[in-house]
């Protein structure tokens, strides 16, 4: 019975797509080549062919060191994207969608729908080499991994976070080191805002194919069959109802739903629930609750996650000590027109009773024609300490940095872990 359900879960999206008429591709109009990184030891190049009907996209890395040769060329991703009305059809390499819960995975195959971007808190750099299955971590995953020596989803893929650096707006600027030892600065928020949709079920993404393995380490390594579906519908009374499912052949199946609603000026509340079944027959559950509030004086974002010991998702299948509870909170206060104060707190407890607590405070104010910022981070664990970072930014131009500031903007903060001080970041 379980095998039949899995087969239906994969085949229904494919059968539905056979009814879609793909318009004839017109002649190419633009060819664009861009080097995102260029140095003798590691270079990344992206090439695109653009037209009114679609886009061909390909990227690769190579070493330009003398005497190395073309054998160092590694394909990152190749895809063809076609617009079908308001929807997008992507063939080739892509990233799976997630909603209020779920795991983003790189895979090769087909993706169809309106959701073409990953959730804001997912670290989706296309140059980040990962060992094993190409699972994309979140900013929260990276922060907890940087403050713990335990077995994590990042360590399973030879990823590490060297340090976090200050960033404007709602972003954390992380220095992530990949499986090749290359470091890059990645900015993303710790908490993604709750997504609300209008009435109807026009917000969706359906995909299936084979999951990527050893991404950026080898050119054409693909693993087991993978399927992913996310559908968000706007229901009466202002509710957004979301369904999400993930399937990895001979490993795990997870299905769940989420509900969100904005309650006037009070804020937006959300709740999600999911159930997983792995290859051994074990069944687990996971639940998430969240709340967002925003006004001209302050912003508040809170997320809490609870799960059973048996819950499995694609990103934690190989982790021995899984999450039991994770809480994230961020508060930003506009003290004046040119000053703001932010506080961020993150705590996590695993089923082995390993507890991690991180707290940070950041204050920014306009000083002259520039901006002075001070960040103070502290880990409540015995083997980590505190740190302070002070910076001053001044533009070379006629625009004052605070003249474009949005009044209700939160500035999330950065935790500068003491063991990372002095490490360098490659660009």
From TrEMBL:
Stored PROSITE patterns: PROKAR_LIPOPROTEIN
Signal peptide limits: 1-21
Protein name (database record): Fimbria/pilus outer membrane usher protein
Keyword tags: Signal
